[in-house]
């Protein structure tokens, strides 16, 4: 009797558990259904708003496009050109400061000062519309910089400084390649600008001192590695000749050389050392190539600039979008005003 009662109680408990689980799933599905229902309701309201005001919105867009088209017809044709640079020795910050200074002169219409800095006519300086600098953002730069950090610091520090923290602290100045963008109405002025921008960095005394010290250290390291490589090659030749002589002796007798395995291991160690030194030499050579200058020029300004076009630059599109947006805001404010009047009279 007691066994049957216990079974019934277990069945009741399981039934209650399944009921609770079912109610939980039902609430989740009801919640998801309400979200989709709300989204659909908002979508229908937007369609009703557009349907009721399509004429007003169209007129606002046409008026904006007409005003913008007139402005587009009147504006001067702008040209652009880009300079790609790879700054070394943390000189990127100085590059950014200089370019921002040139742009400030343009915004303040200091054309005489610009003509003096770049050794161009005041008319050519007057044609410049904008200086801009930004990094060429690639995830490889962040990963490579983090790898270099890992190799340079101890294991305990690495554990307390993960990749996410490093990535969040990575700034625009830390990227390898940077783009200097210039816009002007004279499409032939760009070729006269890059030398001044570059020389303003490479003539800095502080950066030149770092460059000279770095070059000396790299060439010294290169010389030491080449000497080590010669020594390793010499040792390998000695081991090879010794092993050949002992092999000849063994072929003439019945002696068993128990040290043969040890010599073979040393030969493998020398081979591995040779590979490591060659790898280090390759890295040093790459560093010498990259850091022989304060700033490396990847690509100069194009002698003739390219035309700046596109919908985002077209005044007709910009004004049409602004007119449409302004009309939407105006109509929404009218609806809000009517709603407040009705709410006040309740």
Protein model, in words:
This protein is of the alpha+beta class and 346 residues long. It has three domains: 2-75 and 320-345; 79-204 and 295-315, no CATH class; 210-290. 72% of the residues lie in helices and 9% in strands. The chain has eleven helices and five strands; from the N terminus they run H-E-H-H-H-E-H-H-H-E-H-H-H-E-E-H. Strands 1, 2, 3, 4 and 5 form a five-stranded antiparallel beta sheet that branches.
Shape, per Cα inertia axes: flat
> In sequence order, what are the helices and strands, one letter per element?
HEHHHEHHHEHHHEEH
Overall structural class, as computed from helix and strand content, comes to alpha+beta
Could you tell me the strand content as a percent range? 5-15%
Helix percent reads over 70%
Quaternary state of this entry equals: single chain
How many separate domains? 3
User: Would you tell me the overall average pLDDT?
Assistant: 81
DSSP, total strands: 5
Strand count, sense and barrel status of the largest sheet are:
5 strands, antiparallel
Radius of gyration: 37 Å
**Poorly predicted spans:** none
Distance between the termini: 68 Å
Quickly count the helices.
11
């Amino acid at each position: 009797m007691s066994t049957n009662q216990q079974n019934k109680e277990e069945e009741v408990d399981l039934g209650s558990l399944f009921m609770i689980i079912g109610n939980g799933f039902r609430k989740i599905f009801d919640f998801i259904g309400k979200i989709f229902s709300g989204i659909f309701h908002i979508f229908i309201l937007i369609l009703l708003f557009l349907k009721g005001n399509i004429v007003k919105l169209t007129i606002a867009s046409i008026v904006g496009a007409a005003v913008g088209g007139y402005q587009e017809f009147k504006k001067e044709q702008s040209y652009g050109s880009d300079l790609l640079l790879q700054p070394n020795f943390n000189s990127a910050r100085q590059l950014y400061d200089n370019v921002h200074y040139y742009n400030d002169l343009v915004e303040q219409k200091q054309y005489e000062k610009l003509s003096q800095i770049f050794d161009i006519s005041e008319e050519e300086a007057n044609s410049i519309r904008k200086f801009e600098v930004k990094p060429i953002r690639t995830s490889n730069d962040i990963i490579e910089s983090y790898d270099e950090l890992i190799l340079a610091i101890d294991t305990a520090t690495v554990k307390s400084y993960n990749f996410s923290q490093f990535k969040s602290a990575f700034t625009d100045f830390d990227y390898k390649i940077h783009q200097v963008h210039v816009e002007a109405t004279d499409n032939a002025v760009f070729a006269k600008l890059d030398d001044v921008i570059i020389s303003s960095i490479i003539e800095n005394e502080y950066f030149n001192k770092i460059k000279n010290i770095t070059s000396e250290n790299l060439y010294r390291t290169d010389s030491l590695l080449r000497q080590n490589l010669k020594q390793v090659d010499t040792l390998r030749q000695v081991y090879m000749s010794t092993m050949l002589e002992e092999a000849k002796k063994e072929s003439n007798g019945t002696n068993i050389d128990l040290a043969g395995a040890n010599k073979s291991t040393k030969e493998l160690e020398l081979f591995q050392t040779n590979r490591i030194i060659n790898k280090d030499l390759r890295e040093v050579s790459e560093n010498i190539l990259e850091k022989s200058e304060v700033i490396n020029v990847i690509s100069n300004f194009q002698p003739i600039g390219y035309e700046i076009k596109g919908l985002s630059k077209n005044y007709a599109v910009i004004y049409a979008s602004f007119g449409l947006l302004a009309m939407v805001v105006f109509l929404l404010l009218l609806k809000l005003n009517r709603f407040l009047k009705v709410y006040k009279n309740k």
